[in-house]
Design goal:
Length: about 160
């Protein structure tokens, strides 16, 4: 989402150079708002459950598109707490973090993905944001070339 008006004083934002980039900024020097548009962190889970990796499809996604369990952090929540909460909300599973996989840019959505390998137990029940899930043996998992797919790629590489 991009701002068109200053969220502090309501004036229309205008482009100007700030810290080496052209940015939208409030024209009123007394206000001083600058829209930096920094990437937002997203936590992601490579969920291992009964020997398989669980991929999920959110409501509204194309039929064949599946991805990792992901979500935004709540205020005061650590990435580790956030990713385990998302696992509970999306799949109704309890998990423990096996390892930190890495941090990856996802520029199309201006996000940074923080990825963990999680071992999960329990019986899967889809949360209200999800349309479907599937269980894939790790050896059949094929990483996709951006965002969370890069975490899958690195995780698979480290397994062998
Ligand atoms: Zn302003």
């Amino acid at each position: 989402m991009a701002y068109r008006f200053c969220p502090q004083c309501g004036r229309p934002l205008a482009e100007r150079e700030e810290s080496g980039r052209v940015r939208l900024a409030c024209p009123d020097p007394a206000c001083g708002f600058i829209y930096y548009d920094n990437p937002l962190p997203v936590v992601a889970a490579i969920v291992e459950h009964e020997g398989n990796v669980i991929l999920v499809r959110s409501k509204g996604w194309p039929e064949k598109l599946f991805g990792l369990v992901t979500g935004f952090l709540e205020r005061d929540e650590s990435p580790e707490e956030g990713v385990l909460r998302e696992l509970r909300e999306e799949l109704n599973l309890e998990g423990e973090i096996v390892s930190f996989v890495g941090v990856y840019p996802f520029t199309p959505r201006n996000q940074v993905v923080i990825a963990y390998h999680i071992r999960a137990t329990g019986k899967i029940a889809l949360g209200e944001e999800l349309e479907a899930c599937k269980a894939i043996p790790p050896e059949k998992l094929r990483p996709w070339p951006m965002g969370t797919g890069l975490a899958v790629r690195d995780w698979l590489k480290a397994r062998v």
